[in-house]
Specification:
Low-confidence stretches: none
Shape: globular
Number of strands: 5
Helix content: 25-40%
Largest sheet: 5 strands, mixed
Length: about 200
């Protein structure tokens, strides 16, 4: 017997570009989130409802910078100083974005590619200002979905296999949009295979 699932109408996909990463550890302790891209999506269709993007000034007094990460996203300290906002401004802007759609007293279903990494940097941004939201118990991660369905967990390989354009410098909003698109394409493939 099948019981009905009570799913939230909208979910939140988050992607961060950062000043570095500690593989196997909590990267947000030593490195700073530099740009956040977020997509609010329909949980039934994975259609995009609303997007958000901010670049954040780098704080060298708190965090490390690595050239390896800079090669991936192409952001520079100088660019961020000119075009970025402070962490407080980014936190307030992001909280306002969330409150336009979500009741932030209720848990939000989140999606990411290596979601734990992105949630850690979201906490880095929001927790100092006491505005971190609750995370829903259903967590969506395209690295796991990709491995289960196609044997691929690296974003470049998965995105390429599903027909997305090859990426140049990683952009957090573009990556969040592709991550939602991965879910949409895999859902369509499954529905087609099942005759739904």
């Amino acid at each position: 017997m099948t019981t009905k699932q009570h799913t939230p109408k909208f979910g939140l996909c988050i992607d961060w570009e950062t000043s570095g990463a500690t593989w196997g550890g909590d990267s947000s302790k030593d490195y700073q989130g530099l740009s956040i891209g977020a997509v609010i999506f329909d949980t039934q269709t994975f259609d995009v409802f609303k997007t958000f993007y901010r670049e954040i000034k780098f704080d060298p007094s708190k965090y490390k910078w690595t050239d390896e990460a800079a090669k991936i996203h192409g952001l520079t300290i100088e660019h961020l100083e000119e075009h970025g906002v402070t962490q407080e401004e980014a936190a307030i802007d992001f909280a306002s974005f969330l409150m336009e759609v979500f009741d932030v007293q209720k848990p939000i279903m989140t999606l990411g590619h290596n979601r734990e990494f992105d949630i850690a940097f979201t906490k880095q941004l929001l927790e100092p200002f006491d505005i971190m939201f609750k995370v829903h118990h259903v967590n969506l991660d395209t690295s796991g979905i990709g491995f289960v369905t196609m044997g691929l967990y690296k974003s470049n390989l998965l995105f390429d296999a599903l027909g997305f354009d090859e990426r140049g410098a990683h952009n957090s909003l573009e990556d969040a949009l592709i991550t939602v698109g991965v879910c949409q394409r895999i859902r369509m493939l499954m529905n087609s295979a099942l005759g739904v």
